[in-house]
Amino acid sequence: MKINPSQEVYDLYDKYAHGFMDRRSFLCKLSTYAVGGLTVAALTDSLMPKYANAQEVAQDDSRITSQRITYPSPNGAGIMEGLYVRPTDSDGKLAGIVVIHENRGLNPYIEDVARRAALGGYQVLAPDALYPLGGYPGNDDDGRTMQRKRNRAEMFEDFVAAVDYLQNRDDSTGKVGCVGFCYGGSVSNKLATRVPDLAAAVPFYGSAPALEDVPNIKAPLLLNFAGLDKRVNASWPAYESALKENGKDYVAHIYDGVNHGFHNYSTSRYAAPEAKLAWQRTMAFFKQHLS
After folding, report:
1. How many structural domains does the chain have?
2. HEC secondary structure over the chain
3. pLDDT at 90
4. Which tens digits make up the pLDDT trace of 110-127?
């Protein structure tokens, strides 16, 4: 039976997924919506990612080459690991994209996003912030718990180091952008304030950086918001005002009627038309600024 959760259920899950509610409280409140023969277990299952059903680019796709690599992060974990992907038929120098995961580590969805980005003709690095703790554990619930154990400042430095790594590879053009989702969206915003030679940043439903840091932004921004995402969208008006006041190069799209996480095609929050349009815009934006 296909279950279509109500908006109240999606809002409840958003609070749980972002650490504003523990699992016991989440399941207790969720039981309120388990009516008419619908069980809490079935309702919970409808919200959880189905990674096996959401792979758009296979791991063994002949068009790309991918491998796990380590890279230095002297101000973060010391050594970091990530998934590195590049087009198979590329021999020359390539621009780069850092793909930044949500608040649960490098899960299969983000790995798939990295492969999709590489098909655009880029070398791509998707770091796993959980590497110092043993890596993504195979499920998002444990991944969220693990990621909360890391020092946030050091974890951010691991993504700064990822940009630096791609910029300085011998096979790099030196132009590197970033795209991130949820937690990764907030990191993408913050990277734009921190890395002066970042070539482009594309946050998906990411919270705003410190407004006093907005004058430091040099990279053009493409910001993607979910219309129903009240939590993240609350920070946007002040952020947009700061961008305007400081003459920054940005484009923002708010996709009406969709939830936080609408690009994640492994969950029931996925909104296909909006997700596809947002990704088309993302790749066009990178082509404009990384070429």
Report:
1. 2
2. CCCCCCHHHHHHHHHHHCCCCCHHHHHHHHHHHCCCCCCHHHHHHHHCCCHHHCCCCCCCCCCEEEEEEEEEECCCCEEEEEEEEEECCCCCCEEEEEEECCCCCCCHHHHHHHHHHHCCCCEEEEECCCHHHCCCCCCHHHHHHHHHCCCHHHHHHHHHHHHHHHHHCCCEEEEEEEEEECHHHHHHHHHHHHCCCCCEEEEECCCCCCHHHHHHCCCCEEEEEECCCHHHHCCHHHHHHHHHHCCCCEEEEEECCCCCCCCCCCCCCCCHHHHHHHHHHHHHHHHHHHC
3. 85
4. 999 999 999 999 999 999
